[in-house]
Specification:
Elements lengths: L3 H23 L12 H5 L27 H48 L9 H18 L5 H19 L1 H15 L3 H50 L1
Helix pairs in contact: 4-5, 5-6
């Protein structure tokens, strides 16, 4: 009876060994980590679709041939055309105004210089105001003298008398006026040639008239002297 527990112990040893060996075979050899994710977690598919990749923003294009211009673009284009049109016409108007002012200033300068060139020199002691009145009175006298004549004399005699009086009363001014008129006539060759011809004829007529006047004067002096001698002879005989 004393060996019964020992026999039970020996009988339980093979059973315990077989249970230990079975437990060793059933226990997995991999080490489990509580915080490290398993490989199946990385291979698991997400339940939502992945978002599409974002594209880089492209710079906005100012002109798109395929797109139709908007009303704003058309309005901006029309405003640009209007501004260019106004600018061009403003520049043209400004150029014309500057050209007009330049011509006006040139005419003013030419007029003042022409009037100044007609004045006699200071040493000539020639006064325009009384001399001009004398010329006007002479022309009026010629017009009065030919008031009952034909139209040719009524038009030519006052002019000739006035010009002659001007050459007598205002010789320097008339010479300056003649030079000015000759400068204008040189621009028209036909008029200049006619002027030269008429002037030559007038000078020749004046020389002949002057020679005739001298001849008439000498003849008159001789007649006066002869008459005086006759009168003196009668007086001497009467004594």
């Amino acid at each position: 009876m004393a060996f019964r527990p020992i026999l039970r112990t020996r009988a339980a040893l093979p059973l315990a060994a077989s249970l230990f060996a079975g437990a060793t075979l059933l226990v997995p050899k991999t080490t489990l980590h509580a915080e490290a994710p398993s490989e199946s977690t990385h291979l698991r598919k997400p339940i939502y679709d992945a978002p599409p990749p974002k594209k880089a923003p492209s710079p906005p294009s100012h002109t798109n041939p395929s797109s139709k211009p908007t009303p704003t673009d058309r309005l901006a284009t029309q405003i640009g055309h209007a501004r260019v049109f106004l600018h061009a016409h403003t520049q043209a108007a400004e150029a014309r105004l500057n050209d007009f002012m330049t011509r006006a200033l040139h005419l003013e300068s030419s007029f003042t210089s022409t009037i100044a060139s007609l004045a006699p020199p200071p040493q000539a002691n020639e006064h325009l105001l009384p001399g001009g009145l004398y010329v006007l009175v002479a022309a009026m006298a010629g017009s009065i003298a030919t008031r009952n004549r034909n139209i040719l004399l009524r038009a030519s005699v006052p002019l000739v008398v006035g010009v002659g009086a001007g050459w007598v009363v205002l010789p320097y001014t008339m010479r300056n006026v003649g030079d000015l008129v000759w400068g204008w006539e040189e621009k028209v060759p036909v008029l200049a040639e006619n002027h030269v011809r008429v002037r030559g004829a007038a000078e020749e007529t004046w020389r002949q008239a002057k020679a005739s006047g001298e001849t008439v004067g000498r003849w008159a002096d001789e007649r006066v002297r002869e008459g005086r001698q006759v009168v003196e002879g009668w007086v001497s005989k009467g004594r």
